């Protein structure tokens, strides 16, 4: 049975999720792909931290060790921020290694360049996990683009914000208390700035814009508002009038070809598809020319949903390679 050698960059929530799924589903993956998937090396910041990893796996804090591991076919990237992730992935592509990333902050800015570079080097890029975690939004948009035209995408793409707004409404608590609750339950980072300020949703929106429309609006022209200014009284007032606050990322292509995006809290009426999306779930509405509107709902984050999106990318890449072999 042929094998595929992989490395994982970043062994936190997401990287460990990938590792666990690849191990737990080893036999299934073998049956589905015809390959044994072997995790050969892991890159972390702190090599002294204790990790639940097989002893034959190289654990390093030097990316050269990953690149120098013989015959690496694929890299799963799950570190945080633009750099050094972009540099590492560029180097991997240059070496002919397929890449799969969950890093939306990096991919919003550098995704178009990485995709172009990958095409030139004849390797594949998976980025399903960058938007809405376990919700297969990227693959769905790709499929729709084959025979349709996307007009607009809007959605709740930040589970932390949605949890906080839900908690404020259901429990009648302040933003601060709801944020503490989100942290206590593991739904918010120690530093939740990107989540509650709208930054995280903005990065995801830009990734969707590139995919759906082949371009992004000028970043400074996109209004980005978070939920941190919403008061408990605002929520009560909205609820009494049968409205709900949702934090919505919204991108559309206008008739003149321009792209307009915005991110922020909006008041929705009960017949809106996002009105009933509570808690940490994400939901994305895709509006197309032929299909009308399609709504996808599911977990937007977490070890297994995100890890499984990355493993699904791996399967997709293996299938793409098989098709290319037949065609060439
Ligand atoms: N968490 C989610 O549910 C989720 C969902 C979708 C997408 N994402 C994205 O996935 C990525 C990872 O998120 P996470 O929640 O797994 O983060 P995390 O738990 O903080 O883990 C980050 C990992 O990356 C390693 N790391 C950070 N900087 C590094 C560097 N410069 N060189 C080498 N290793 C480095 C850390 O090493 P140490 O262990 O040594 O500190 C850690 O293992 C982020 O880009 C995030 O936006 C996360």
Topology:
Blueprint: E1 3-9, H1 13-24, H2 26-33, E2 36-43, E3 58-60, H3 63-68, E4 74-77, H4 85-94, E5 98-101, H5 104-121, E6 125-126, H6 137-145, E7 150-156, H7 159-171, H8 175-184, H9 193-196, H10 199-213, E8 223-224, H11 232-240, E9 244-253, E10 259-268, E11 281-288, E12 292-299, H12 303-327
Parallel strand pairs: 1-2, 1-4, 2-3, 4-5, 5-6, 8-10
Antiparallel strand pairs: 7-9, 7-11, 9-10, 11-12
Helix pairs in contact: 1-12, 4-5, 5-10, 7-8
Bound molecules: NADP nicotinamide-adenine-dinucleotide phosphate.
The end-to-end distance, rounded to whole angstroms, is: 23 Å
Strand sequence of the main sheet, in spatial order?
3-2-1-4-5-6
Q: What is the C-level CATH assignment of the largest domain? A: Alpha Beta
Structural domain tally: 2
Low-confidence stretches: none
CATH homologous superfamily title of the largest domain: Dihydrodipicolinate Reductase, domain 2
Pathway: Amino-acid biosynthesis; L-threonine biosynthesis; L-threonine from L-aspartate: step 3/5; Amino-acid biosynthesis; L-methionine biosynthesis via de novo pathway; L-homoserine from L-aspartate: step 3/3
GO molecular function, one term: homoserine dehydrogenase activity
Catalytic activity: L-homoserine + NADP(+) = L-aspartate 4-semialdehyde + NADPH + H(+)
Protein name: Homoserine dehydrogenase
């Amino acid at each position: 049975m042929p094998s595929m050698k992989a490395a994982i960059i970043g062994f936190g929530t997401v990287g460990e999720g990938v590792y666990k799924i690849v191990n737990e589903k080893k036999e299934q993956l073998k049956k589905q792909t015809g390959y044994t998937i072997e995790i050969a090396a892991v890159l972390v910041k702190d090599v002294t931290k204790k990790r639940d990893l097989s002893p034959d796996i190289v654990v390093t804090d030097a990316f050269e060790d990953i690149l120098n591991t013989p015959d690496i076919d694929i890299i799963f990237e799950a570190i945080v921020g633009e750099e050094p992730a972009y540099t590492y992935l560029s180097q991997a592509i240059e070496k002919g290694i397929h890449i799969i990333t969950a890093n939306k902050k990096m991919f919003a800015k550098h995704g178009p360049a990485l995709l172009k570079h990958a095409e030139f080097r004849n390797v594949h890029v998976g980025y399903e996990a960058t938007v809405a975690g376990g919700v297969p939004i990227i693959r769905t948009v790709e499929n729709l683009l084959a025979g349709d035209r996307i007009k607009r995408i809007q959605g709740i793409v930040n589970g932390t914000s949605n949890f906080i707004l839900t908690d404020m409404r259901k429990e009648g608590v302040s933003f601060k208390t709801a944020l503490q609750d989100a942290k206590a339950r593991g739904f918010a980072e120690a530093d939740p700035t990107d989540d509650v300020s709208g930054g995280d949703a903005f990065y995801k929106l830009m990734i969707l814009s590139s995919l759906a429309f082949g371009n992004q609006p000028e970043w400074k022209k996109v209004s980005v508002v978070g939920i941190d200014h919403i008061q408990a009284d605002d929520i009560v007032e909205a609820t009494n009038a049968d409205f709900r606050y949702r934090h919505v990322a919204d991108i559309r292509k206008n008739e003149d070809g321009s792209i307009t995006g915005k991110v922020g809290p909006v008041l929705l009426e009960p017949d809106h598809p996002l009105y009933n999306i509570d808690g940490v779930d994400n939901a994305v509405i895709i509006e197309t020319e032929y299909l009308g509107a399609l709504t996808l709902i599911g977990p937007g984050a977490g070890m297994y949903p995100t890890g499984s999106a990355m493993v699904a990318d791996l399967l997709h890449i293996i299938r793409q390679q098989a098709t290319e072999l037949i065609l060439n």
